[in-house]
Design a protein that fits this description.
The protein is an alpha/beta fold. It has helices at 10-15, 18-36, 50-54, 87-93, 111-120, 139-147, 185-193, 200-203, 225-230, 234-241, 247-261, 282-305, 342-345, 371-379; strands spanning 40-41, 62-67, 97-104, 154-157, 181-183, 266-270, 313-318, 346-353, 360-362, 366-367. The chain has a domain at 62-95 and 107-337: Alkaline Phosphatase, subunit A, CATH 3.40.720.
Amino acid sequence: MSSQFLSPSAKDRVRLAPYELARQLAWTRREFLRCTAGIALGSSLLPSSLAARTGIAAGKRKAIVITFGGGARDQETFAPEGQENIPHLIRDLIPQSTFFTQVANRGILGHYVATASLATGVYETINNFASLPPEHPTVFEYFRKDLKRPASDAWVVAPSNGFNRIGESSHRSYGPGLGARVILPKHLLTAATSGGTDYDHLLRDNYETPYYTPELGGNAFELQQLGTMLKLSVDDFKAHARTLSSPDELSVYIVRQLMRQLAPSLLWITMHDIDIAHAGTYSLYIEGIRRTDRLCADVWKTIQSEPEYAGKTTLFILPDFGRDSDDDAGGNGFQHHRTGDALSRTTWMMALGAGVREGVVFDRPIESLDLVPTLGSVLGFSASLAQGKLVPELL
């Protein structure tokens, strides 16, 4: 095993400034992917636009975002000792993608607030454990207002009840009536089963603070819409749920139904199984990474097989943030994400699909806030209040 792929040691981290740590981590990911997945270092020369490469007008394109949520470290993913946990990313998805090795999250490292920041393009400061909407306009509001799209064209599928307000902001120029519809599969399953014990493994919610159970409100999906929109009977839904092993599997099941029945142009999926790491069991953390890897590939296969999506969809996959290092005395290793150091803040992003260059890696720094304005350029709306920048390599 070549030492060039090893993450910086604790001794090295003492000597390196945060930006140097982030750069070294990005370089390590790049070199690993070049050797393992056979992808090339990207060039800054961009010979043609996305529209020219696809021939698809912005108004006809679709975008799906998956947050590789819960926080996973390189040593369990991109490092040689971790690659067995992400076989689908390495073998199937990354070779078809444009991959960014250095995506910085400079905000609060809580799952709801970090995801809200990803969805607004602004570092949100709302309480991570309160049932509050984002304060800045979301990507869904920009999309629907600018393009005059109906509510049925923008959806969020979120595994945690704490995400029930993620679909629309409290901003006075946007807000109520302009956001995405939010499906909380756990809420749906609870309503369908009255919380039966056969489904306890699917109804686990907030792993970081297990006693936190938010009161549901906002634009949550109601049980009576199960049949009319998703074309599922309550009995069929319950029967299929009984065959699943995790909340994220339930989310992807709902995602497939949404894609087949409504074909929304903007779909946001938050994965959360990895966050079981807060329970302190390493094997469950690894299991969560492997399942998330598989489910990302499953969504990509669905995109390729559905006529409404094949050939005109851009898929973005990125984590909300990382997790603590084993060597940092201020953290708890894989179990938590408390230190806020460069290792926990430096993540990655891949984009694949219509018009995206395949097998290319970029290690220049970008920020997680850059997702929203880039989505705006892909789909044809202006994210006027977002603080991120366009990612030109995708346009």
